[in-house]
Amino acid sequence: MPAPSASRPRPRAPSLVFGVLGGIASGKSAVARLLAGPRGVIIDADALAREVLASDEVRREMEAAFGRAVFGPDGAVDRARLAARVFANAADRERLESFTHPRVRARIRARLEEARARHVPRIVLDVPLLLENDAQHHLVAECDRLVFVDADEAARDARAVLSRGWSKGEVSRRERAQLPLEHKRARADHVIVNRGTPADLEREVASVLRAAGVDTTGTGDDESVRDGA
To answer: How far is the C-alpha of 207 from the C-alpha of 194, rounded, in Å?
Structure first.
């Protein structure tokens, strides 16, 4: 039997897919970047949603549904005005989701399939309603590991006030429309505690990666890629 050729390419390992869970402003995006690593891909549902809202087709549907009140002076959708309306009215929220969520789901699925076709080593789904809308997008079954990011509610609320300009208490109000955090934590394969320094967070994520069988000793030359950004 001939000896195996040293130049013969080795089979490429399948992509490892992480789904990130957690409360609003818990640090999920930071965790997603660390999980993806230098050669990974982050599929960012919020960024894809912004793309969808900016499309001409959806802007026309928005105007038909809500009028000009949700648009800013520049003619673009004002996300703050839109959020204030839909989070105060369940019927409006369902109407918005009926024409935005299918488009966002299609983009997420396309990014996921494309990343797998390229054999990207680590793919991270940063999808805020990953569990809530699983009956529609079926993404949980695509994840090899679910990771919950645990952060104090007071810290999350303060972070949202500072970085997003939200009113105090807005985090809690919006989360009432989502699954309880206890449920998300119970569904996770790993829990990352984000209550310390960035270095502490890096150590937490490295521990999860090792548990998932990822070699964290090597380094990559490429920058991480955020799909949809």
So the answer is: 13
